[in-house]
Amino acid sequence: MSVLTVKPSFPNHLMVETLIQELQAGHHLAIMLDYDGTLTPIVARPEDAQLDAEGLQTLIDLAIHPQIRLALISGRSVEQLQGFIKSILPQPILLAGLHGGQVWDAQNNQCLAEPDENLVNLKAQFLQDVYDHILTKYGELPQGITFEEKGYSFALHYRLADDAVGQDVHQIFQNAFDLEATIHNAFRVQAGHSVVEIVPKPFNKGAGVRFCVDYWQKTHPETPFFPLFAGDDKTDEVGLKAVLALGGAGIAVNVDPQEMLALSHQERDALWVLQDPAEMQGVLKALVQALSPLS
Ligand SMILES: [Mg+2]
Questions:
Q1: Which domains does the chain have, with CATH numbers?
Q2: What separation in Å is there between the alpha carbon of 275 and the centre of ligand 1?
Q3: Could you tell me the distance, in angstroms and rounded to a whole number, from the CA of residue 174 to the centre of ligand 1?
Q4: How far apart are CA 82 and CA 165, in angstroms?
């Protein structure tokens, strides 16, 4: 495992030591992880973002530890996340999809948060409009452009498209959004790595982080939690902000914290920094190994 690039004086084992110290001080760890780009590398086709067997085993080891609560907080839908980790279900893990707007307790097979059904119809109409605008301009869906259906939202991916075409369809999407007041009122536009999507307005990863911690706190009222959130792109900034506000720790994966403009300088300085999902997996695995003698 390599040392950190941005904070060379703070190697990964100190991250694990800090978490172990929190456990020894009587805290339980509330570990919340983004999925794409944090646990798995960003891939050309979003459906290919599968964790390997070792990564899945690490999730199980964390999920079943009595002093750890585990959640995935992702822009994906809960159904998509279920697909990625179906081989390890049902473990005690929360899946917070759609940036925290849809939350499912895997162990109890219980839906904890679900958006308004009307959003599905609004979203379907907007998806059709964007599709029609693209067809009007190009005659057919350009190569490398894909729509990802997420129930209450959808994403337009252009990682595999020609750069100019990708930027153009992104703009078509934005223009359509700007023109439609009903969509405007219910959703916001969110852009990530070669992807643009609409997200119901109240949904964001900060709300997702607070929802998960509140839920664990309600179900374990006597337990003091130390929350941790890890993420890799713009949509994760509010999650990192939320976890720091709760007195926990934030991990920025493959991103320079100085570019996370939603965060204050003080918040950016407080982040732990990892180079890539492989290093994230390494830290989680090292944590599991350090936990064994404790349990
Ligand atoms: Mg991500």
A1: 24-115+203-291 (3.40.50.1000), 118-200 (3.30.70)
A2: 13
A3: 21
A4: 32
